[in-house]
Design a protein that fits this description.
heterodimer, A: 7-stranded mixed beta sheet, B: mainly beta, 5-stranded antiparallel beta sheet
Chain lengths: 111, 112
Amino acid sequence: DGGITQSPKYLFRKEGQNVTLSCEQNLNHDAMYWYRQDPGQGLRLIYYSQIVNDFQKGDIAEGYSVSREKKESFPLTVTSAQKNPTAFYLCASCGNTDTQYFGPGTRLTVL
Amino acid sequence: EDQVTQSPEALRLQEGESSSLNCSYTVSGLRGLFWYRQDPGKGPEFLFTLYSAGEEKEKERLKATLTKKESFLHITAPKPEDSATYLCAVQTPNTGGFKTIFGAGTRLFVKA
């Protein structure tokens, strides 16, 4: 089955800790995205990558980092510099059409 | 400033009671408008893409329409399983490419 997977489904972070969220796709899509979703707000773009070994900051990149070493993978690290990381994180990918397809999400909670 | 606004924030319907969700947008240029369905705790599921005013798309009980300023998602004779949050997103040209702006969504509750 083609699709996008995210892991873990739930993640808990302690103060001062960095955590990494995984996103993998087997759709052969070039572009991948990370969004943050908070209650009552639209999805906000954290980082995006249009090609391997290249990525760009989105609207709320502070406190986050990414890498794109493989076409299939786009992990997101939430660093200790992100002061309010509790949110639902969504990864998406996009191929030749303009449509973004989303993974199932990771819910991050700060303890 | 580019903006996407969805209304109402929440909508409660009886089973079989048809209604419409609105997505109004103010952007410098429209490349495409997307509708998604999102169930609680899950990622958005793609429904439709609309590209130009006058375009319509249908899928089961859902029909999406587009004008130069807004899009409607019409729900005909809804069932309880249609309960979800419906997201609208607009893609607009941006420096070096394009950007996608999401609305906050409309939460739909359909009661049996």
